[in-house]
């Protein structure tokens, strides 16, 4: 019983105006032949509370991975997608109980969890930090980070882009007091960047690829050597208690899909590009910027999250004690063979 539709979300005021894109119908089967076997699903008493799983996505990233790899076939429960433009509204929907699980980066997770998000990390993936970029317009006179002094930079507050701004400034002898930070969501930030209202834009992956491929922006500095770039699927405490089997199946399918995509970039990019309305060239460029691969929720992942949280605590973004280990649920283990495939593919 596989169905893909957008859920009705309660407490919409918490979603920061983020639209929920309806995801209906399946794309051409010819594009979706799986090269990895789908994980087995074992129903248990823990999922007796329901047979549907509502998941939050960003720019159709997870949905397109599952579709392209064939992992959306034969799911024995209803899978509902809510699509958002960035991590913050995904985690706000999770906080509201409007979704069971959500996909977001480590920086956004640290910020949300420190503020009481009633959820735990159940799945992780690592990517190249080079996919996080501080952009300036192609014709900008800004050539170095030092040139940003006195300038206006936009980023999503609490995001990995915000982290990059602070880390890049610090590495070059500057601080946030030397610039003006304008906190905007990606759509508004893109408009401000294009119009020249802001001088630089700290953003990630697809947005970076769009500007670079179109030759409208260039990367002044990226995240290599400045930050980790991990992403997580987290689930509410209620969903973990009531829908464990569904969640285990879902994270296994996402992991298998990620591995498939690493070896089938063009095929995956066609589907993702169609969903987010970008050219195949932009979709391929975006995928190759990050190349996420699944990893275990282990000591290394927990340590990385603690490092991110400590960084934010140091600049006053996080103002409460934060212990990363308390927010990770390691019981949703991935198959050892799948992790070995991931290590080889990465």
Plain-language structure description:
By secondary structure, the protein is α/β, with parallel strands linked by helices. It folds into two domains: 12-127 and 229-345, Periplasmic binding protein-like II (D-Maltodextrin-Binding Protein, domain 2), CATH 3.40.190.10; 129-222, D-Maltodextrin-Binding Protein, domain 2, CATH 3.40.190. Helix content is 38%, strand content 18%. A six-stranded mixed sheet has the order 2-1-3-10-4-11, with helices on both faces. Helix 4 (160-171) links the parallel strand 6 (152-155) and strand 7. Helix 1 (61-69) packs across helix 8 (244-262), helix 3 (106-114) packs across helix 11 (299-314) and helix 9 (265-276) packs across helix 10. The chain starts with 51 loop residues before the first strand and ends with a helix. Residues 1-49 have low confidence and may be disordered.
How many E-type strands?
11
Annotated CATH homologous superfamily of the largest domain = Periplasmic binding protein-like II
CATH hierarchy class name of the largest domain: Alpha Beta
Radius of gyration: 19 Å
Q: Structural class given helices, strands, pairing?
A: alpha/beta
User: Biggest sheet: strands side by side, in what order?
Assistant: 2-1-3-10-4-11
Distance between the termini: 33 Å
Q: What amount of the residues lies in strands?
A: 15-25%
**Which parts are unreliable, with pLDDT below 50 for 5 consecutive residues or more?**
1-49
Biggest pleated-sheet summary: 6 strands, mixed
- How many domains in all? 2
Order of helices and strands: EHEHEHEEEHEHEHEEHHHHEHH
CATH architectural type of the largest domain: 3-Layer(aba) Sandwich
User: Overall mean pLDDT score?
Assistant: 85
Helix content: 25-40%
